[in-house]
Amino acid sequence: MEEVNQTVVSEFIILGLCNSWELQAFLLLIFSSLYLITILGNIFIALLITADLHLHSPMYFLLANLSFIDFCLSSVITPKMITDFLKENKTISFGGCMCQIFFGHFFGGGEMILLVSMAYDRYVAICKPLHYSSIMDRQKCTGLVMTSWITGFVHSISQLALIIKLPFCGRRELDSFFCDIPLVIRLACMDTYSLEMLINADSGVLATICFILLLLSYFYILLTVRLHSKEGASKALSTCTAHITVVVLFFGPCIFIYLWPLHITWVDKFLAVFYAVITPVLNPAIYTLRNKEIKNAIQRLRC
């Protein structure tokens, strides 16, 4: 009985996105380019906000932290996926798999809370402008960022604690391009139905609550702007639509995979690419490069 409970699988086999070498070569070029853009874009935004005194405000403080989290989140999954395109036998050690799960949920959970914090910041700025400076002071901003990191850590460690002691003694093929809990848990040598429900509820409920809070905040922002200015409403609608697009691309796959796990492999892979690779690329463009003050800061940098 003691032997059965021991983990005897030292590594997992990753099947990847596809089997075709031609398609893998094409995807290698695409994802390498996207990863390079993600890294350079997010680092540039974080450094620009830190260096430019005109951007030392609550909104940009939160944006700088978002860029840092996106940099970390993309680095958890994408480099391994890129190097695997060059390998015929794609494997990941048990420890590497657990690390990928931990940091993926750590940064992913933290980003969810940070996006809600950013929406709250915009809500206060637009709906309660006279009280903005007193509500969004330095202490509140630091508290919001710390809350995002702490929530991400608690969420991640609770997920990891549930699966790290599972017995893996037979199957070891992961039909994906990275390690994630729904995939790994199916390989355990025991009935994991109840555990799957618990883990899916944990991740799914967190994503759903954050998603609803984000939509509510944007709804109130648009409603407030519309009541005060029709011209401002059009501009706010354009901005909020761009933000909501990124939010849907990030939260949608998470909610679908965890709350409605249909176990359709190609769908799971397609959705995972969005929140692991595409969203970290879009965030700098949507949240910052469209912003007038960021453009002015770039101009000052050139001068």
UniProtKB/TrEMBL annotation:
PROSITE patterns the record matches: G_PROTEIN_RECEP_F1_1, G_PROTEIN_RECEP_F1_2
UniProt-listed InterPro entries: GPCR_Rhodpsn, GPCR_Rhodpsn_7TM, Olfact_rcpt, Olfactory_Receptors
Molecular function via GO: G protein-coupled receptor activity; olfactory receptor activity
One Pfam family from the record: 7tm_4
Record-linked Gene3D superfamilies: Rhodopsin 7-helix transmembrane proteins
Keyword Chloroplast recorded: no
Compartments reported by the entry: Cell membrane
Membrane topology: Multi-pass membrane protein
SUPFAM superfamilies on file: Family A G protein-coupled receptor-like
Keywords on record: Cell membrane, Disulfide bond, G-protein coupled receptor, Membrane, Olfaction, Receptor, Sensory transduction, Transducer, Transmembrane, Transmembrane helix
Major localization class: membrane
Top-level taxon: Eukaryota
Residues that span the membrane, as ranges: 25-48, 60-82, 102-120, 141-164, 204-225, 237-260, 272-290
Positions of the G-protein coupled receptors family 1 profile domain: 41-287
GO annotation, cellular component aspect: plasma membrane
Known role: Putative odorant or sperm cell receptor.
Family: Belongs to the G-protein coupled receptor 1 family.
Protein name per UniProt: Olfactory receptor
